[in-house]
Write a structure and sequence with these properties.
about 170 residues, 9-stranded antiparallel beta sheet, mainly beta, 3-stranded mixed beta sheet
């Protein structure tokens, strides 16, 4: 890397959420923003896997794969509507929801995923069933809670370990 190139955040790690679930994650930052990938597993196995893309304006895309199906959600260019779909064994449910500047996504039962998606209490909550709803206003897991992040924007997990993506 030359002295004129930025030092992109390119890391991977693992740790536990407050509910005891295990998170394995990676983040790759570049000129177009950050791409987070992570999995959450618990005693029953893999709960879900996610991808969040952030650009200069904030939240740009969510992909969430879990027991209930596969969800994709992304705001339009004008930032007034977010589109996507949920693919289930029964078929496809198209999504179109209102979106405003500063909106983000919380993932029910996933404080890590909510943090990387930029959740600050405003936007949409993705339920375990992959249905979207507005938050109920209470700061609990059901309405979306985000872990605090360090100065790099990496959510703080319990018993955390971290590695560089490149050797």
């Amino acid at each position: 890397m030359s002295e004129h190139e930025p030092a992109w955040l390119r890391r991977a790690g693992k740790g536990r959420q407050p509910d005891g679930s295990l998170v394995a994650w990676s983040v790759a930052e570049g000129a177009r923003g950050r791409r987070w990938r992570w999995t959450v597993s618990d005693g029953a196995g893999l709960r879900h896997a996610g991808l969040v893309e952030l650009d200069g304006d904030g939240f740009a895309r969510l992909e969430l794969d879990g027991r209930a199906g596969m969800l994709t959600l992304h705001p339009d260019r004008d930032g007034t509507i977010a589109h996507g779909n949920v693919v289930r064994a029964e078929g496809v449910d198209p999504l179109a929801v209102s979106w405003a500047d500063g909106d983000a996504v919380a993932i029910e039962g996933d404080a890590f995923g909510s943090a990387v998606a930029g959740w600050q209490g405003r936007g949409w909550v993705v339920g375990h069933d992959l249905r979207l709803r507005r938050p109920n206003g209470a700061p609990d897991v059901a309405s979306g809670v985000a872990l605090p992040a360090d100065d790099r924007g990496v959510p703080k997990l319990l018993a955390a370990h971290e590695w560089p993506l490149e050797a």
